[in-house]
Every structure is written in C-alpha cells, then in structure tokens.
Amino acid sequence: MKLFRNCGNFFLGLPAFVWLLIFYALPAIVIFFIVFKPVDSNGGIGEGWTLQAVCELKDPSYPAIMWRTFWQGIVSTFVCIAISIPICYQLARISNVKIKNFFLLLIVVPFWTNFLIRIYAWKVFLHPDGALKHLLVWMGVIPQSTMLLYNQWAVLAVMIYTYIPFAVLPIYSVAEKFDFSLLDAAKDLGASSFYAFRKVFLPGISKGVLTAVMVVLIPAFGAYLIPDLVGGKDSHLVGDMIARRVFTDRNLPHASALSAVLMIAVFLPLVAFIWFRKIFGTKSPDDAKLQLKQQDTKQRLGSSLLFTSDTNVSQNQQKGEEANE
Amino acid sequence: MKFFRKNRGAAQSRFPMLITLLTLIFLYTPLVMVVIASFNASKYGGSWVGFSLIWYEKLFHHDVIWNALLNTMIIAFFSTFFSTVLGTLAALYLYRSKSKFKSVYSTLIYTPLIVPDILMGISLLMLFVLVISVCGGWVNSILGINMHLGFTTIIIAHITFCLSYVTMVVLARLQEFDHSLIEAAQDLGASNLYIFFKVTLPIIMPGIIAGALFAFTLSIDDFVITFFVKGAGDTTLPIYIQSAMRRGTPAVINALSVIFLVLTFVFVFGTQKLLSRKKS
Q: What's the domain count of chain B?
C-alpha cells in the first residue's frame, strides 16, 4: 500500500519535472553546445564544429563590459540591502497591523507594476526637458549640457530602483519574526542603540539578508532591459551585449559564448549561497530553531510576495510537523 | 507617532523611519511624473504645454495596441492554465515526498525563480532554433506542420517560468494547513481520492487561485523572454511598449502606463482585501 502511494506521488511530480528538464535544464546544456558551432550565412547555426565563438570573446571591449556588469551588480545589491535593513526594522516595529500592511503594500506595488513601465517612468523623470533636469539646472548643481539619461549612473539608479522591493521582502519576512525584546535586553545591559542593532538585530536577520543578496545580485548580473533603454554607449552590460549579438548581428554562437560566461557567473554565487546556508544552519541550537521557523527561505519569499503578512505560516507549519510525529 | 513605538519607553531612533519615507519618495516620484506627463498636451514630453486628455482618447482608438492586448491575453490564458496544473501537481509532490530525490526536484523548481530572464530567454531560443533546424524539415514533410517561432514557443516559455511561481505559492498554502484534518479523514475511513477532492483541494484552492493570478500577471508583464522566443511580427503589449520606447517616446505610452498603474493598484489592493477577509 505504501509502495503504491509512493508511486502515485512520483507520478504527481513527473509532468513538471519532465517539463523543466526539457525546457529549462536541456536549453542550458544546448547553450554550451552551440558555443562550438559556426555561424550560418542566414543567421542560423551551421554544420561542423569550431572554436570561433570562444576566440571572439577576446573582443577588446569585453573586459570593460564584464567589469561594469560585476561592479554595478555588487553596488546595486549593496545599496538595496543597506536601504532595506532600516526599512524592515521600521516596518517590523510598527505595532498597528493596518499601518504596517499599508506601508508594505506601498513598497510592493512598484514590484507588481510592469517592469517596462517602471523603466519608462525613469525615462520621463530624467527627460532632458523634464522637471528634475530643470530643477537641478536652476539650483546650479549641473550645467544645461549634462545628460541625465543614457549613462551608467542612470543605469545604476534604475537598477537600485527596480531591485529594492526584491531586497525588502525576504529581509522583512525574517525581521517580522525577530523578538524585539532582545534589543531592550541588550540596552538594559548597557549597550548603545546602535551597538544593540549591530550585534543583536543584524545577526538575527542574517538569513533574510543572505536571501536578499541572492535575489538581487543574480538578476542584476543579467540586467538587459535597463542598460538597453536608459544606458548609452559607455554603459553596456553583458545582458544587453547578448541581446545585441542575437538581434543585431544574428550571431547565435557568439551570443551563446557570452551567455555561457554569464551562466557561470550566476552559478558561482548560487552554489556559494547553498553552501553558506548549510554552514549557517548547524551553528547553534538557536540557529537551528530559527531555521526550523524559516524552513525554506525561498518559499517564504514567495508567500511574502503575495500575502504581505504571513506570520502564522511557520507556526502552523511547526504544528503540522508535531502532528506528523 | 505613538504607534511607531512598540516597546515601553525605549527611545527609538527616527533614522529608520526617515529612510523608509525617503525610499517611498524615491519609489513613487518617477511614477507620479508619468501620471503628470500623461495629461500634458505636448507631443514629446518635456515641458508643460497644457492639460489635455487627448492621449487617452488616442489610446482608445489605437488598433495596434488593442490587437497587442488581445495577443497578450491569449498567451496569458494558455500559459496560466498549463502552469497552474503542472505547478500544483509539483507542489503536491514536494509536500508529500520524503525521498532523497526531493532536493534535486526542488532545485529544478526553485532555481528558475532567480535565474536572470535573459538566460532563460536565450537558452530557450537556442533550443527552439536547434529543434527547428534539425526536425523542421521532416516534421513538415510527414505531418505537414511548419515549425516556426510564434505563439506556441511563447506559450511554452511562459509556462516554464510561471510554473515555479505557482508551485511556490501552492506549497506555501499546503504547509500552512493543519495536517491533522487529513488524518481525521483517514481515521474516519475516507479513501485517498475522496480525501483529495473533499479535504485537500478545497483547502488549497485559495493557494491555487493566488498562484494562477501570479502566473497570469507574470505572463502579461513579461518582455525579455517573449522577445527572445517570439516570431517576426508577433506583438504582445510589452513588446509594443518597448518598440515604441525605442522609436522615441510617443505620448500615448504615458496614458497606457497610467492605465497599467491604476490596474496594478486596484489588483494589489483588491487581492489584499480579499485575502485579509478570508483570514479573519
């Protein structure tokens, strides 16, 4: 009977597994395969094997582009998290649930707004004849000739803008469960507010911060639309170079080679993240308890995207586990 | 300011609140600018010419946009349906399974959530190009089907990235519910199938609906992946907006953005109200 049920279970999972194997895992392998194919005269993939695409990666403009992708990813992740921590601290401390949810909703709404429209809003905002430009010129901060749009600072600003909700949500879902009386205890023992914040609150939310780093850094490495639409000649990133190779040059092997590089760049922090979580998980009994509460950070991230307040999830979950035993 | 102070007497720094408010200003200023610009009579944006509703009027008579909207809806409908079915089944599997294989499975389900869009888009494009160049010829001669990039490839791609989100949302709901209900049903002699349809399914239904809504929104919003796997001439709404943005910034897009913004607000606040009512 048990065997039968296990089999049934297996068939439940099978369709999605096969689907992702064919349309998610296989395409990733296909990329590495096409790197070694020559270009066809009409933009397709030719016969035979060649190392041409790999050699083309030596393009003199690429090191600068890769370096820019790297530092912009790091900087935008850092800024997003530096902003999100005080926000989450503030949100978690608001005791009025209605006001708390309202604030949270205000932060989530941009996340739900169409991505293109958010970028478009920035194009309007930084328009050469727009309000911000006039204001800055009037204040004497910049000369009339400065372009606010189409440079790497515009790209960085829009990246930070886009990823703030991504950083707030996972940190908030952990901060919400933080026991703030611990901070008071630290203060009673003579710690300054900032010291207590640094030594008690930050370690308490480290799991959420780690997830936030993940969900900002990895998409930031692959940013394509932002440099494409608000960037200029000096602000290409790897993402929009890939698109350029596909749509402008019709050079699929070359695009594959660039994508393979990006894929490796994305894969490394992902592995580091999983490894980190394992290490953090078995450090102390308190940590283990915290981990039990959080179960799977990504599931939690997901539920917090939709149900802005999911305080009772983990409690019920624990109840369920107890019931199982 | 009273409600911001939770703990007795402990003086709290104003700094976090200041950051929160500044961030909200940062998040909303560009959006407010678009709303203002949409009422500007000037054709290319920039300085204020005068109040006008002309762009909204133009929007309603814009056939290309309406056609793009129709395409978007067709694609969103099919991809939501299939991804909801596949995703719910996967969530049920993950919830019940205790085997070692589960960790491989959940890696496959969860990594698509953070992999950059562009990687998913280009790898699917490569797969489709490869399959079409290898099999296209004989499929055409045997079955008479002309394989090409188009709605089918867009829908396949959308199912792929929506699936993981559906699984995540449904699984969260599954883990939330009281497992003893199922045990009670088992003790009372209900069959597994009966339990599934009479206990499990009604309980996780809100999760399935939330997952489907999530998938629908993601499908409507997606630009990057669609752009890679679409055929020449296929236009969805985001594709249209992007091409209009690249050509310059026609003022109709302002009006369209405002409508999008309003719908988003209504949608998010609506679901919030709905969910909070269900909880209480």
A: 1
